[in-house]
Amino acid sequence: MMALEYTQVELLTLNGPEFRRVSTAPPRPPTENEIPVIDLSSIDGTLEERKAIASKIRTAAENTGFFYIENHGISEELIQGALSQAKAFFGQPDELKELASSKQSKLADGWHGLGTTQINKSETLDRKETFSIRYNPINDPTIPDPEKVVADGKFSDGDNADSVDFPWSGTNHLPGFRETTVEFYQRRLTLARKMIRIFALALDMPEDYFDSVTTAPGADGLYVHYPATPAKELEEKDGNLDVGIGSHTDIQCITLLWQDMSGGLQVLSASDEWLDARPISGTLVVNIGDFLQRLSNNRFKSTVHRVYNRQPTSRYSMPFFLGFNADSICKVVPSCVDEAHPALYEPISCGQWHQRRLELARVKPIST
Ligand SMILES: O=C(O)CCC(=O)C(=O)O
Ligand SMILES: [Fe+2]
């Protein structure tokens, strides 16, 4: 076997910028244990059944920090409906996408056009466009009277709030866009809350351990479009294609990702090699973000990943990021601390953490 060669990638991690050794070999398929497929069909069954799922998730979380879930309960019909809406949105001329532009959002929701992000400053601009919505109690199926919560001002970002019509006023010419986008968001919020209960079990805590910090969580639902790479460009640029999304870790707790069959998602293994997190139909990819790694005292891994779209056709993905309530102060989970493993991190709220991480990305650009 040929010896592997390595390069250095500069990354924004939990602890700030950091160099990481990365193999230059093309991504290889993962072994079954590196990115396992975990069956959720008994997630609504007995506690024992959930503990069995938690045990598999614990192993995956301590290893690569990435796994697939099957029988997750979100219907293929809804997923395909959401995908059609994503395609309809991105298929519009820019003037129409501008109507829902993040430039009009105080919270950076809505549309971010091509060439507006660079998640890793030591790589290229990200070759993607996105549409995103965040948590709003109006869309939370667990809140009995959401209109009232909003009217009472019990949930408000104060001066920072967007109008309740944003971004929908800019998409209402797309039939069914809001309804399907919100329904898909709701189903993923429900699934993500079930998953975080499994994560509590995986951390040897009671399953309701995180319930009080997920009542109004930071939770973002995205549509992502990675434009096609024409065959000619692939040939000309070959190894030097722009990234779809550069090497990064996710910021919050858990990510649920639907990806189409294009391929292109790569995950950095514990041995510093890129793994091809190939699409498996009927599954979602789940990975752990920095905040959960922090709360688990580094037991669960927030893993570096990136995307290249090398296809002559568009690639679409639909990630959902779950964090915790913005203001709830969270400390390292007690089961992850003992004399040999003192808490590595101070208590912090997920909102503060998210803010700090974004500021780090903005004010401390990584040198090229
Ligand atoms: O599009 C994908 O497959 C992954 C996207 C991703 O990693 C992200 O948005 O954080
Ligand atoms: Fe990501």
Automatic annotation (TrEMBL):
It holds the Pfam family DIOX_N. This is Fe2OG dioxygenase domain-containing protein. InterPro entries: DIOX_N (IPR026992), IPNS-like_FE2OG_OXY (IPR044861), IPNS-like_sf (IPR027443), Oxoglu/Fe-dep_dioxygenase_dom (IPR005123). Residues 215-324 form the Fe2OG dioxygenase domain. Signal peptide: none annotated. GO terms for biological process: small molecule biosynthetic process. SUPFAM superfamilies: Clavaminate synthase-like (SSF51197). GO terms for molecular function: metal ion binding; oxidoreductase activity. Keywords: Iron, Metal-binding, Oxidoreductase. Belongs to the iron/ascorbate-dependent oxidoreductase family. It comes from Penicillium olsonii. The keyword Calcium does not apply. PANTHER family: FI07970P-RELATED, OXIDOREDUCTASE, 2OG-FE II OXYGENASE FAMILY PROTEIN.
